Amino acid sequence: MTRPLFVLMALLGSTATLSAQDLLTWKFQQNEQFYLVQVVEQSQSVSIGGQLQQKSNKQSNITKFRVLAVRPTGGADLEMEMVSIKQESNGVEVVNDMNKRMEGAKFQVTLNAKNEVSQLKGYDEFTKRVSAGDPNLLRMFRVILSEDSFKTTNFQAFAMIPGIAANPGDSWYQKQSMSLGPLGSVSSDHKISHAGEIPTTDGRTLIKLLMTGTGKYAPPAERFAGVPFEIVSGNLQFKTIEGEAIFDVGRGRIDRFQSSISMTGTMTVKAGEQTTEMVMQQKQSGLLRVLDKLPEE
Q1: Element (H, E) at 124
Q2: Predicted TM-score of the model (pTM)
Q3: Structural domains of the chain sorted by starting position, each given as residue range(s) with its CATH number in brackets
Q4: Distances in whole angstroms, Cα of residue 25 to Cα of each of 21, 160, 166, 172, 199
Q5: Which parts of the chain register pLDDT below 70?
């Protein structure tokens, strides 16, 4: 169940002559197909009873989108398919049956004029597919990765470009909150700034967007039945939330987005009759690219 943890990084719109009619927004084209390729790397150190444990993780996701319809008032109907999910732990590939069952799952999603998810079809079928008929796993999966959390995890790349007109130096703000079930919840505030045009040699107009943010973690407010652990308390502080996006004005979409996040703090976890206090430090870096086709491996 590492996928929800990667959400923490995933929180997170051209030119010097931008006119009021030029919007920073996704320009969807009927029947077009594109891929979101995301790589998240995480390093973590945990001290339990004076014993230090260090671990590194890497997750690589490929998701395919096809535009089913472009809405005249803004937004679009999309088909999404999970193409590939790969994980590494301390440099060794992790073979995960749950991730394998995720691959090939399809969804239909409707984005509104602000590129926010207004409707999602396929979540129930997806959770049943992943749980492979195990009712306990189904319940656990839906608790940790709720439908709302799933939307935030997989469609934030659209919502971060909300369809606004901006000039260099302009800034705008976004708020986000997400429940992680028995893991607690995360809320964040982001400031996104238009940092000007990037010189190119291929005729494209590329805009740099800079993101800074603050985040807050809260332990779960209730006990979750059937979960074999309980987070009694948690005091995690976000030290940095930063990102840089390159927006392609002509194509009307993100070209790439790099982000970094770090946090530190303590957490007390109870499993059965045993209570453990942990001192944690964690750093994450992420790279998201939008591609017309996948590069050959």
Answers
A1: helix 123-131
A2: 0.86
A3: 29-289 (2.30.230)
A4: 11, 9, 11, 14, 21
A5: 1-23, 296-297
